[in-house]
Design brief:
Two copies of one chain form a homodimer. By secondary structure, chain A is an alpha/beta fold. Chain A has twelve helices and eleven strands. The longest helix of chain A has 16 residues. At the A-B interface, helix 4, helix 5, strand 2, helix 6 and strand 5 of A face helix 4, helix 5, strand 2, helix 6 and helix 10 of B. Chain A binds a DNA duplex through helix 2 and helix 4. Chains A, B: Keywords: DNA-binding, Transcription, Transcription regulation.
DNA sequence: ACCATGTGGTTAATCGATGTACCAGTGGGC
DNA sequence: GCCCACTGGTACATCGATTAACCACATGGT
């Protein structure tokens, strides 16, 4: 399968070159500007000039009309807008970006180890939330995938140096996160998901009472009679890992208990399976497993079942995220809903505001809430 | 609990404005160019001019040095590159895009009904594949979400009119797909995933023998003794839906059989559950269900189990896509691997080639293959 | 009659990089 | 000694939109 760049007779009829422009290059090599883009229909996109001419005004008037700046009579404004619609013109993003030093593009960089193939569905939800706010305001979402923090930092530096983006959404806040300072240094607005920290160089966006969900989960399990709980956490360097783990241990301590075990993972399915196997083989096996995301919880359920245990009769499982899939599994997954989508929307709004956009400030009430379904049940009587 | 967007003391000390810049606008509104971007460190990014000055050459020389065009001595070239590195300069994406009419940005538009919340993990895989080829060449991926085809078309028109992208990756080819013609009319290079059709206005990219996977699945089930199979397809308007459905029915016909049922869905979990329930309630219940994607298959397994059936003892289930999750469920999901990631990479290469980039043409050998795991088993003896 | 005040535009500079046209040297051939 | 080719660069127009500065003209107050 070769590259399929057909040559076309270029600009056959009445190519309207500016006066004095050379008719064509002698060597027959298409100049870069006409290049591969030229299709048979390759209607050269109209420019502001064409619109100005069509409306019988100057280009400045057109610009002012579409941007609502300057002083333009309503009549002229209409004429301009009509002409623009007629010609199907929209201002060139590149030209506008160059002049205004603003690209209307936001970056989302997803960082994860190379061997984790599928992106966490968590990000799909987040993106949905972001897009819902960005798109209506003409903003685009530039998505990048990187393997580690070094790459991520380098990427921001490049994006900033090239002036490709107006801001960035940071996910997976780390305990000692280099990105806030980096981005501030680069002069790029940003918001950090999940860990509102007033002292940080970039504002955080997230539900309040981050720990509420896990506390509720523990309370729920205690109420069901469970006394031996284990927590399967994410990577230790993530901020929310610490928050949730502490919430877990605190809640247990409040009942005079200690966790049977707390294990950290890298969020991969493989790790979830390995840890679950280990915990379930423990002499004093936990009767309930609390996972720090749904993907791992699903793996955990599968692993338990494969080990001959029934969920929830023999072991209860709680997830975190409330991904759509969890509703349809058997048993349906008990999990913590943290409204990723809504948080994403709020993050977008916050970021847009910092980019100078006039948006109503995000209202993000609520807190993570436990959704009780079928993967949790009474403690096994044998225990 | 209100939004938690803390304000920060903005730009407190010594905002370093360029000389000659007005100290501040009288009305206190920051001018657009300084806008929100100005941080205390807001080091104005260096321009090509600064690099030229630092290297003691003209801006043209700098441009030629970094682009490898024109005639520049190796010595000067080095000096320029060093100066650029020293200053941390990269050419402005906006300026370059304006001048060259090329943005180094590719669009991926994900279309799905508004009520499907989480994006199909399928797209995560695809994006991973795309990014792997785009990023190393300095290309960015602009991601958009839309609800329906009308919105999608409008979006391409806007993106084209604004000159925001160089090309697009089209997914979910439809039987009567308006996008190829639309994009050709707009002069935008594109590739269509999944249905290589030489006659189409845009080239298709996909594994060969699209039907091989489903055929293999059917053969596998027949070999296990199944005779009553049902197929749960995607939306009828998608090309691959038809291909796979036909493959399914053909393969059965080859064995002198007919499908117990073929049902179309909108790919939502809800639909998958509903259809599964309906099929399993059939008087002559199918002993094997073949789903057209993994997400639905997982829902199908859950539904069967909830209905008191064991998988695979009472009913076998086959998925399609080979998402990572399927390996860890209980039972592990038998599915068709179509190497979404590799196809994504190939699509990126093909598209880059059409954008005038000098990339080795994608090599896409192989075909969809059945991955036999645990969700398929011998036909129940009672049948 | 005259100046302040608006109104509704226009002109021209500018954003940063690119590429064509052009120019200054420097040997080389004969 | 003269012309030519070649090397290594520079000057300037250009991409398309934005915006500060300015201007022509009408109106109203004194």
């Amino acid at each position: 399968m070769k590259a399929r760049i057909e040559g076309h007779p270029e600009d056959v009829a009445g190519a309207s070159q500016g006066p004095g422009a050379p008719a064509a290059r002698p060597d027959g090599v298409p100049s870069a500007r006409q290049g591969a883009r030229a299709g048979s229909e390759g209607a050269a996109r109209p420019t502001i000039k064409a619109v100005a001419a069509a409306a019988g005004v100057s280009t400045a008037a057109v610009s002012q009309a579409v941007n609502g700046t300057g002083r333009i009579s309503e009549a002229t404004r209409r004429r301009v807008l009509d002409a623009a619609a007629e010609l199907g013109w929209s201002p060139s993003a590149s030209a506008s970006a160059l002049r205004r030093a603003r690209t209307r593009t936001i970056a989302l960089v997803v960082r994860r180890p190379t061997d984790v193939l599928g992106a966490d569905p968590h990000f799909s939800e987040l993106i949905t939330g972001l897009e819902g706010e960005l798109a209506p305001r003409g903003y685009g979402l530039l998505l990048h995938l990187v393997a580690d923090m070094a790459q991520e930092s380098a990427l921001y530096e490049r994006l900033a140096a090239e002036g490709r983006i107006d801001g960035a959404v940071l996910t997976d806040a780390r305990a000692d996160d280099p990105r806030p300072h980096l981005l501030r240094g680069l002069g790029l607005p940003a918001v950090l998901l999940g860990a509102p920290d007033p002292a940080a160089p970039v504002p955080g966006v997230g539900l309040g009472q981050q720990d509420a969900g896990v506390r509720e989960a523990v309370a729920h399990l205690l109420e069901l009679g469970h006394r031996r709980l284990a927590y399967i956490a994410g990577p230790a360097e993530l901020v929310h890992t610490g928050l949730r783990r502490t919430a877990f241990e605190d809640a247990l301590a409040g009942a005079g208990l200690r966790a049977v075990a707390v294990r950290h993972t890298d969020f991969t399915e493989r790790a979830a399976v390995a840890v679950t196997e280990e915990l379930l083989a423990l002499p004093d096996r936990p009767t309930a497993l609390v996972f720090s995301n749904d993907s791992m919880a699903v793996c955990g359920i599968g692993t338990a079942q494969r080990g001959g245990l029934r969920v929830p009769e023999d072991v209860s499982v709680v997830g975190y995220d409330n991904l759509p899939l969890g509703r349809w599994l058997h048993p349906r997954l008990t999990t913590v809903d943290q409204q990723v989508q809504r948080v994403g929307a709020a993050a977008a709004r916050a970021l847009l505001a910092r980019c100078g956009e006039d948006v109503p400030p995000p209202v993000l009430d609520g807190r993570p809430r436990l959704v009780v379904r079928e993967s949790t049940g009474c403690v096994p009587s044998a225990s």
